Amino acid sequence: MINRLREGQAISLRGEPSKPDDIALLEEIRDLLKDN
């Protein structure tokens, strides 16, 4: 799961999520980062 989060962060840095699933994953990551 951590690897997946890192992939999501990399996608976020590139700013090019290619699928709706990627966008949803990035939103989850942002929420997790806010909580931390």
Please outline the helices and strands.
Blueprint: H1 2-14, H2 20-35
Number of helices: 2
Distance between the termini: 17 Å
pLDDT averaged over residues: 71
Fraction of helical residues: over 70%
Number of strands: 0
Order of helices and strands: HH
* Tally of distinct domains: 1
Strand content: under 5%
Taking pLDDT < 50 over at least 5 consecutive residues as the criterion, the unreliable ranges are none
| Largest sheet data | none
How would you sum up this structure, described in words?
With 36 residues, the chain is an all-alpha fold. It has one domain (2-35). The chain has 2 helices and no strands. It has helices at 2-14, 20-35. It is globular and about 25 Å long. The model has no long low-confidence stretch (mean pLDDT 71).
Task: List its traits.
36 residues
Provide a brief overview of the structure:
This protein has two helices and no strands.
